[in-house]
Every structure is written in structure tokens, then in C-alpha cells.
Amino acid sequence: MNPRNSLNFSGGPGALPESVLQQVQEAIMELPEIGLSVLGISHRSDWFAAVIAELETNIRTLLGLSTDYHVLLLQGGATQQFSMAPMTLLHGKTHAAEYLRTGYWSGKAIPEAKREGPIQVIWDGESSGFTRLPGDDELLFSPDAPFIHYSSNETVEGLQFHRVLGRDDVPRVCDMSSDFLSTPCEAERFSLIYAHAQKNIGPAGVTVVLIRDELLKDAPDNLPGFLDYRSHVKAHSNFNTPPVFAIYVVLLVTRWLLNDIGGVANMHQINRSKAELLYRLLDQSNGFYRGRAAVPDRSTMNVTFNLASPEMEKRFLAEAAAAGFSGLGGHRAVGGIRASIYNAVTLQAVERLAGFMDDFQRRAV
Question: What is the pLDDT of residue 205?
Fold first, then answer.
């Protein structure tokens, strides 16, 4: 297959909708309404202010989000939020914030939070090899915790929460980097949501943060300006030179979700159809493909599995790459195979992958 026709199943950066890529290609050369390349437009221009305003509105519309929340477009990825959230919420607190360690990325957030104040890991999936998520009967949430933190979808292990965790009287902080705007999420039950863009909603370089206004009332006054959410609220996500290009692409993706897909609920139905196709193939393979995640906790974004041996996995990946399927290697932390089927990966692309997998099995046994 011609490399230009390769299909992107990478864990990130993920695929972008074809219509968005076409608009981006044109905008790199020249935005018709401006006459300049999007790469050279000032972040202080009226055009960019309008981009920010529309993008905020689109995200509010997609999630049904009230004006009690600020919509911020920040830098630093989810990694910066591992620090910013506890810097803001743990200052002066004596009770421990509650964290769940359900996989690679939620585990990355924990040592950063420990720098800022007391935390307690109330559930740790290491003993199960991070192959499952906790049930409600395994979780005991304290009413005194400053907040609870968890990751809604673990990209590495292929695990996803299909419910909201925690108490309604304790702020929820959630890393939704890999399933943001892929499914309805009851956004107003969360106090802070963060999601870097390079999975479902754009290229690397911008992170969407949704934060309830009341959460900022007790924030410490000695935070560095760049690490203070209030600085970005006041500046309308223009505190310093922002990633104009990346933010513009996210705007185009939200337009695509609203106008072409018809909203997040419709996007979820498409994503579920893609995931069911692959999981059905795994389940009907008589153990040739071995799903990694417990069935109730399977991710609709990242389908993770193994074959009988590392040698067979190498053969699978080599033949898949030759057939035009890119990014199927599992994360270095766990190995194996991972098919990431983010929003812009089409059902037709997943059908082609399923066809390849079925053919590979027939030839290998």
C-alpha cells in the first residue's frame, strides 16, 4: 500500500477527520478571510479572538456545559495538569486528596500530586497487572477529601470507566485526554476536566481544561502566573503566545463534531460500533487474539490484545505495516498490540483492519 494511504491507529497523535485535514491544508497556505497563512496570524488579532470565542461556545454546546465553567486552552499537555490541579486544590489542606491508580497515565499523576500536599491512593490496579478497573464495592470515598482524581480512559492498557466515580459533594478531577468528546460524560458532575488534544480533538500542543468557577475561590495567591488558572481565565486563554495553529484545528474538529457528526451522542454510537467490531473478532478468534482488558472495562478508544508469542506479534506488526496499518504496536510499558480507534478513525478503516486480522489468523493457523 502507498504510505500516503496508510491508516493511523496510533495511540497518539491520533487521526484527524479528512475534511478537517483539507481545511487545514488550505489554511496553511491562506485563510480566505484573512489572506495570510494560519501559521503567521497574530495571537492578538481579532480573528484569533473570534476563534477562541467560537471554540469555547462549541465545547459548551457539545457537552451541555453551563457558564459556571471556564473553558481554557492551555499548553503543557496532561502532564502539566498533573501539577496544576493539585497546586490549586491541595494548598493548605490537611485531608488527603484521593487518587486511583488504574494504569500508566493515572500513575504518572500521583508523584506530581505528592509534591503539593497529602494524597491517598484508594485503589491500585498493579496487583491485577492493570487488566481491570475497580467495582463500586472496592471503592470507599471520604467526604473530607479535597478532591478525587482519576483517568476516564487508560490508553496504554485499554481500560475505560463507563460510569462516573466519587461523591457528588467532593470535587471530581478527571483526566479525559483519550476519550474527551468521544462519548457523553455528564460534564457538570465534574469540577475539573482536562484533555490534551492529540487523541480525539486535534494535534499536539493544546490542552482543553474545563474548570468550575467556584473551584478557584480558594486557590493560593502565590502561584506562578503561568500555572495559575485565573491568569488564563482573565486572559481568555491568551496569557502568553498560545499555539494558534493547534487551537484552530481543534475549532475545526468541534465544527465537524457539531455539523457533520451531529454531536457527542452520535459520535459515541459510531465509536461503539467500531469497538464492537474489533472486540467481536477477538472473542471469536478461539484464543488467537487475546484481549488484555477485562470485558466490562474494555475501552472504546484503545483495543489492546496479544498473540501467542512475541515472535507472532512481530510478524503481525510487520505485515500490518506493509498492508498500510500504522501505529498498531502496543505501548512500551506493556507491549503487545493496540488499535486506537479515536473519533476520526472511520468505521470503514476499522472494517479494513478487521479484515486484515481475520486473514492473518487464517494464514497463521
Answer: 94
Q: What confidence category does residue 32 fall into, taking pLDDT thresholds of 50, 70 and 90?
A: confident
Distance CA 302, CA 306 (A): 13
pTM: 0.96
Domain 20-261 has what CATH class?
Answer: alpha beta
Express the helix, strand and coil content of the chain in percent, nearest 5 each.
40, 15, 40
Contact yes or no for 87/116 (Cβ under 8 A): yes
Closest CA to 300 of 189, 180, 192: 180
Q: Between the CA of residue 299 and those of 132, 196, 322, what are the distances in Å? A: 11, 18, 27
Active site residue 105: yes
Residue 91 has pLDDT above 90, yes or no: no
Percent of the chain with pLDDT over 90: 95
Among residues 46, 47, 93, 105, the one annotated as catalytic is 105
Q: How far apart are alpha carbons 147 and 292 in whole angstroms?
A: 30
Given 114, 124, 168, 175, which residue is catalytic?
175
Does residue 175 carry a catalytic annotation? yes
Largest CA distance in the chain: 65
Structural domain boundaries in the chain = 20-261, 263-364
CATH of domain 263-364: 3.90.1150.10
Catalytic residue among 93, 179, 199, 228: 199
Q: Helix, strand, or coil here: 149?
A: strand
Q: Is the pLDDT assigned to residue 125 strictly greater than 50?
A: yes
* Annotation says 314 is catalytic: no
